[in-house]
Amino acid sequence: MSFKSYDAIVVGGGGAGLRTAIEIARDPQLRVAVVSKVYPTRSHTGAAQGGMNAALGNVIPDDNPEAHAFDTIKGSDYLADQDAVFFMTENAPDIIYELDRWGVPFSRLEDGRIAQRPFGGASFPRTVFAADKTGHALLHTLYEQALARDNIDFYNEFFLLDLIRDDKRVKGVSLYDIKNGEVIALAGKAVILATGGFARIYWFRSTNAIGNTGDGQAVAFRNGIPLKDPEFIQFHPTGLAKTGILLSEACRGEGGYLINKEGERFMKRYAPEKMELAPRDMVSRAIEYEIREGRGIGEGARAYIYLDLRHLGEEKINERLPQVRQLAIDFEGVDPVKDPVPIRPTAHYCMGGIYIQDYKTSRTPLEGLYAVGECACVSVHGANRLGGNSLIELLVFGKYCGMAVREYVKNTDMPKITEIEAKRGIDFISELMTRGGKETVAGIRSAMGEITWAKMGIFRDENSLKKAYEELSELLKRWENIPVVDKSKVFNTNLIEVLELRNMLELARAVAFGALYRKESRGGHSREDYPSRDDDRFLKHTVLRREGDKLTIEYEDVRITKIKPSDRNY
Predict the structure, then answer these.
(1) Which residues span the domain enclosing 281?
(2) Is 324 a member of any domain?
(3) Which of 67, 211, 296, 440 is deepest in the core (most CB within 10 A)?
(4) What digits encode the pLDDT tens for the residues 127-162?
(5) Whole-model pTM over 0.85
(6) Among the options 31, 42, 280, 502, which is catalytic?
């Protein structure tokens, strides 16, 4: 069986993967493969609306990387590793100016400098943006830069099946070609996972694209790589009520209000200073409290409150929030120029991810394996990510990961993959395509969504988390009885959904397990039976391992270098 060899294989064609690949490919002697489940410009980075943070000081000159770091660490509920945070904030301005030179069409101040706007949890207006389509502009610019490099090959619409490895190092990847149903192997000196988040485990209420199923995290987890802090899921305050589709934090950054059915700006009860610009975890809980106490509109799971942009005026909405307006019109039938928009919190982002040993290189415990972006945990977000920090994270750490990989592969031999190793992916798909059973993807996926939202959502407790873990474990067993009904080879979406569902179930179970043993409330993890933060016992990172079918948990100290944990008030 023949297969191609590359110096580096980047799995994921979004912002993190492209930025990493571009940096590796700066050496024209190196060959880089970029593997993407979807065409790269359809990656979920394109859905990021509001912007990215960097202390440029263009609006208020006093802003600086130290203030950015403090806001990030406070926003993380002091669970972020502070050396990694300072590394990110100190390198952020140069990253933005580099993107500006590459052609990202940033919105501008009247004097021509890059504009910056306020975002939640920030002490200065430091979020740079391109209207409310920042991720779209960023993704297309990065893809153009990658296409301009002759030493990057794209494998578009290929699904990651597994790592190829031995006891010492990663040797390559096994991939399923969605277009024609073939299984191929690629050999590589280094593999970089950049596959995005997995908030689609909250199936009915998530801002994430349908494909955000945690493929990289699940593959790493099955290969013995730990997950770090998987219990910390961010629920974005402003998802459209009917669909969960994101309305950017830029809505509140530009001056939007949150109001209950009585027309009251209720955030004064929860964050009297920051109001709607408190961190996302606080605003999400505040909305849910309002609904619980009968001040929402509607009943039960379909209840909501309003996002009010009317006072901003049509001109400003069209200039700064054009996509938000169109989404509200298309999916809620409401024009924000004329009417308030029904919203409710929705699962948005995974603060945890693949365990990273060294934030400057993004390497994992397996030699030759790296991870960047939302699929990794460096950890700069801790228990709660500030809006605007996700894009800058993937850019900073993608660049420096690329630099580290570039040096690593120059001094590393190409691994040899045996025919048996290369055929494992073929055997797995053959077995999957021929198995029987009476379960369905839709049935198990629906059950997963009900469990995750009801039992391990914005509010959690011992009983709900135990039940979630047990029920998700049972769903994993039932997954083995899902037949692949579609036997075709060309764009077999049925097969892909079966594969993705296993990844989601394994990660959902990991979230429940981590949350069950963290007996405190911190950031996005809110325990009603343990409502207070407990620094004595849990100012630590969760390190979750898989041993066969069982999960084991350890804890690791947070790296605190400059900023002592204190009360988190806004």
Answers:
(1) 236-346
(2) yes
(3) 296
(4) 999 988 999 999 999 999 999 999 999 999 999 999
(5) yes
(6) 280
